[in-house]
Design a protein that fits this description.
This protein has 13 helices and ten strands. The protein is α/β, with parallel strands linked by helices. It folds into two domains: 213 residues, Rossmann fold, CATH 3.40.50; 97 residues, 3-Layer(aba) Sandwich (Rossmann fold).
């Protein structure tokens, strides 16, 4: 059995020797070569396949740490706001820990696959009329009452867990890549990777954080976040790395999503294709080593996949 992520990196995480580790086998995700994308970009491109985590997204890395510490600290339950992946992960890890989970979601804005995951493991789902920001405000209100521990990425333990992906990349490649491209969303993962590379002492890659130019309405629901919670810290990290945010259209995300599936055999949720679209727009230096973080499995959002196929067939 693989060593749980929190056990593997316990000395680099805010865990004590007595912290009870709540694990579903997260981390140690595949790093896949992308030969056709490499040829197209004239670079050495790798895909960090985070859809291979237990609930199908990178959120599990942070959730194992956040839920383990919540359990150790005597939490009565956990709460989060989510566009889907955080909710699915929080629900699963809370169930593993024997804690109730309350998930606050924008009404009608969460992909079916993610909602089903959360309900299947017994979480209570509260829908609010409005945006992710409205859902987060409600989750913060619940957490402030003292009945639930917040496990959104505003909980610093989430960022600590997510930084482990950078450790894995350095171990697998023998050094940091030249470029790391990932979805922007709330900015927490950008912040986490920067922290991980800095702590690994292997140098900082140029970070490229991709976001839809239609941020408030994009079909890529995982990055439909109008006000990124970690914008300041993420953009400071981007600047330190010599990189920056890149805005791409939904049409570019669709083309990149299809490319990953058809040319590389990787079926991801639409948001994961945003960094590929960014690389295709702002091409890396020829011969550079590039890692693209593919943050979630395509089965997370089957309705979006169905609509995208209809769009592609109509255009053919």
């Amino acid at each position: 059995m693989p060593v749980p992520l929190a056990e593997r990196y316990r000395d680099r995480l805010p865990l004590s020797a007595s912290t009870p580790i709540v694990s579903l086998g997260e981390g140690s995700t595949p790093l896949l070569p992308a030969p056709r994308l490499s040829a197209q970009l004239d670079a050495e491109v790798w895909l960090k396949w985070e859809g291979a985590n237990p609930t199908g997204s990178f959120k599990d890395r942070g959730m194992t740490v956040a839920i383990s510490l919540a359990l150790e600290q005597g939490a009565l339950g956990v709460v989060c706001a989510s566009t889907g992946n955080t909710a699915a992960s929080a629900a699963a890890y809370a169930a593993r820990a024997g804690l109730p989970a309350l998930l606050v979601q924008p009404a009608g804005a969460v992909a079916l696959g993610k909602l089903v995951q959360a309900r299947a493991v017994g979480a209570r789902v509260l829908e609010v009329n409005g945006s992710f920001d409205d859902a987060l405000a409600k989750a913060l209100e619940v957490a402030a009452s003292g009945t639930h521990t917040l496990v959104n990425s505003l909980n610093p333990h989430r960022i600590e867990g997510q930084k482990t992906a950078a450790f894995e990349l350095v171990e697998e490649l023998g050094a940091a890549p030249d470029v790391l491209a990932l979805p922007y969303g709330g900015g927490g993962n950008t912040r986490a990777y920067a922290r991980g590379f800095e702590e690994a002492g292997a140098g900082m890659p140029r970070l490229v954080a991709a976001q839809s130019s239609e941020r408030r309405t994009t079909f890529a629901s995982a990055i439909r976040i109008a006000t990124p919670a970690h914008r300041t810290e993420a953009e400071e990290a981007l600047a330190r790395s010599g990189g920056g945010p890149v805005s791409v259209t939904d049409s570019e995300i669709l083309a990149a999503w299809r490319l990953l599936a058809k040319d590389e055999g990787v079926f991801c949720e639409p948001a994961c294709a945003a960094p590929v679209a960014a690389l295709l727009r702002e091409r890396p230096e020829p011969g550079s080593r590039v890692v693209c973080v593919v943050t979630g499995h395509g089965l997370k959002d089957p309705d979006a996949a169905r609509r995208l196929f209809v769009t592609l067939e109509a255009a053919a």
